[in-house]
Amino acid sequence: MSADRSASILPLLAILAFIAGWLAVQGFREAPVDETVDAVERPRYHLEGARWQRYDASGALVFEATAGGIDYFDDESMTLTAIDLVTRGARGSWRLEAPHGSVPAGEKRVLLGPDVDVHGEPRQRPDIDIDTPTLWVNWEARTISTDDPVVATTPGRQLKAGGMRADWDAERVEFLGQVEARYAAP
Predict the structure, then answer these.
(1) How many CB atoms lie within 10 A of CB 172?
(2) Contact 183, 157 (CB under 8 A)
(3) Is 57 exposed, middle or buried (0-12, 13-18, 19+ CB in 10 A)?
(4) CA distances for 43 relative to 60, 69, 104, angstroms
(5) Cα–Cα distances in Å, from 11 out to 20, 63, 173?
(6) Fewer CB atoms near the end CB (10 Å): N or C, the chain?
(7) 4-8, 10-14, 15-19, 128-132: range with highest mean pLDDT
């Protein structure tokens, strides 16, 4: 090989070596992580066998719940599993059981469902049992409600309706939509 030809190939080889080295270094760098996707998919906290108690501004217990699991996210939303929630009213209470629940971001209520078992224990009236696919529990307004069909049972009566609204104490229940009642003879 002639000296002129070697001199012209050396700069080309140097450029190729530089490109190969640069590509090798780039291959070892971590790919950028999209933190917005990561925050949505994974909770900030995960609790198992959790007990959740909510108090009002005066320190009175509003409700207490147990959950098989609670996932708490950065946007302050939550998902819950195996929920057993009891309202603490002045004149009665509700016991609400559901396999799942969720608290939307920025909300003061939890959506239970599917297949919610509701048991009301008012102090001055007979107990009431209600089955419904979903149920909103609003701890700030101190109400429970659903726009889904409900089946309510008290001693000697069964009622079907298109939805319901009730107070925190299980004393006032308003059935909505097409209401159908059946009474058993005394």
Answers:
(1) 13
(2) yes
(3) exposed
(4) 29, 12, 14
(5) 14, 78, 88
(6) C
(7) 128-132
Q: What are the tens digits of pLDDT across the range 156-182? A: 899 999 999 999 999 899 999 999 999
Q: Mind listing the pLDDT tens digit for each residue in 43-53?
A: 899 999 999 99
Question: What is the pLDDT, as a whole number, of residue 116?
Answer: 97
The pTM (predicted TM-score) of the whole model is: 0.75
pLDDT at 39: 42
Q: 102 in helix, strand or coil?
A: strand
132 close to 152: Cβ distance less than 8 angstroms: no
Residue 117's beta-bridge partner residues?
Answer: 97, 131
Query: In whole angstroms, what is the distance from residue 62 CA to residue 87 CA?
Result: 6
Distance of CA 84 to the CA centre of its chain: 14
Residue 73 has pLDDT above 90, yes or no: yes
Inter-residue contact 72 to 80 (CB < 8 Å): no
Cα(90)–Cα(167) distance, integer angstroms: 11
Q: How many CA atoms lie within 13 A of 12 on its CB side?
A: 5
As given in the structure block, the two tokens for residue 177 are 């939509």
